[in-house]
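Narrative progress, year one. The postdoctoral researcher (J.K.) led the effort to move from monomer predictions toward full complexes, under supervision of the PI. The following entry was the first complex the group processed end to end, covering 231 residues in total.
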Amino acid sequence: DAGVIQSPRHEVTEMGQEVTLRCKPISGHDYLFWYRQTMMRGLELLIYFNNNVPIDDSGMPEDRFSAKMPNASFSTLKIQPSEPRDSAVYFCAAGGATWTPLNTGELFFGEGSRLTVL
Amino acid sequence: GQQVMQIPQYQHVQEGEDFTTYCNSSTTLSNIQWYKQRPGGHPVFLIQLVKSGEVKKQKRLTFQFGEAKKNSSLHITATQTTDVGTYFCAGLTDSGGYQKVTFGTGTKLQVIP
């Protein structure tokens, strides 16, 4: 397995544009987490899914952010419209390989998508 | 909401000195994990602690989980330049039958050769 794959690795866009970040998780992992990392706020949990169902989106900053997981092998995080304060590294992480009812086990992170909004 | 704080935020040590980072959660945790992120990289899993008072060792790294399952620490003995990076704890909490993973604020370690 190639691990968690994120795309694009880098994106530079202008304020107001739509941004779509993509994640292909590791097969056989029940959990998928989206995190945002900035110097000021660290690693913030945005949303997480279990078996493709969104469980907790309380970390999503605003209605401009949305996330979907149409199937077990693909998830997207969309920002529309984007703003300069959205500039950050966005990570997708898969967990649950050794899932028991109360244990996600190790999280496997993708390489991240570095977003710059001008 | 739940908060997971780490101290210190930054630490500079001479190579060979010891290093400790402390993690404190505002709520009781089911488990705690530790991750290391190298500059420009992504977080990589180090270990998971489950039991109250648990202590685990990985070579020069010692991890502890507090008795109340609200705090944890990572201690590195005799640091090396390869230890450079940011160390994160991650608190796992049961949320309606699912498990939520909240990362701490991180401690950035710089080792001076």
